[in-house]
Amino acid sequence: MQHGRKPASVELADFQRVYDVNVKAIFLCAKAVLPSMLKSGYGRIVNIASISGKDGNAGMLAYSSSKAAVINLTKVMGKEYANLGKDITINCIAPAVVQTAMVDAMPPEQVKYMTDKIPMGRTGKLDEVAATILFAASQECSFTTGFCFDASGGRTVY
């Protein structure tokens, strides 16, 4: 993902690859499942965004901007399917830095940069993010759509 690089040094092919994975894939998945959801009258889509899509992380141009696009795609799709008389919701989760293989591969200074912004002073855990996803995918989450749930240890409160 070319962490730590300024926009002028980011290769277009790398930038496009990040957008293909993070944005285009979400669009294509939604396009594939929404007809079945409409037919059955029920469905949940939970997209994975990132806190960096809300705040932006220096040195992560493609990643941060693509995750901002995920948040906006979610908002728009949530509104577009909200008033059809169906129980279809489309939301996303925006985790802060979570201890994963991707984080393990980052330069330590990049991880510190992100973790220092978290009031809880630590990375998130996969099971903490999974619990938020499970709620967003549940029947109990029937009055929330187009929303971005934070799993950020207090990093963002909007």
Describe this structure in words.
- The protein has a single domain, classed as Rossmann fold (3-Layer(aba) Sandwich), CATH 3.40.50.
- The protein has a three-stranded parallel β-sheet, with helices on both faces.
- The radius of gyration is 16 Å and the shape is globular.
- It is α/β, with parallel strands linked by helices.
- 28% of the residues are buried.
- It starts with 11 loop residues before the first helix and ends in a 7-residue tail after the last strand.
- It has helices spanning 12-40, 52-55, 61-80, 101-104, 108-115, 126-136, and strands spanning 42-48, 87-95, 148-151.
Provide a compact summary of the structure.
It contains six helices and three strands, in the order H-E-H-H-E-H-H-H-E. The chain is of the alpha/beta class and 158 residues long. The protein has a single domain, classed as NAD(P)-binding Rossmann-like Domain (Rossmann fold, 3-Layer(aba) Sandwich), CATH 3.40.50.
- The pLDDT mean sits at 92
Provide the β-strand percentage band: 5-15%
- Helical content band: 40-55%
Number of strands: 3
Radius of gyration from the CA trace? 16 Å
Sketch the topology as an H/E string, one letter per element. HEHHEHHHE
From the spread of the alpha carbons, the general shape counts as globular
- Supply the number of structural domains: 1
Distance between the termini: 27 Å
CATH-defined superfamily: NAD(P)-binding Rossmann-like Domain
Query: Which topology does CATH recognise?
Result: Rossmann fold
- Low-confidence stretches at least 5 residues in length (pLDDT < 50)? none
- Total of DSSP H or I helical runs spanning 4+ residues: 6
Strand order of the largest sheet: 1-2-3
Largest sheet report: 3 strands, parallel
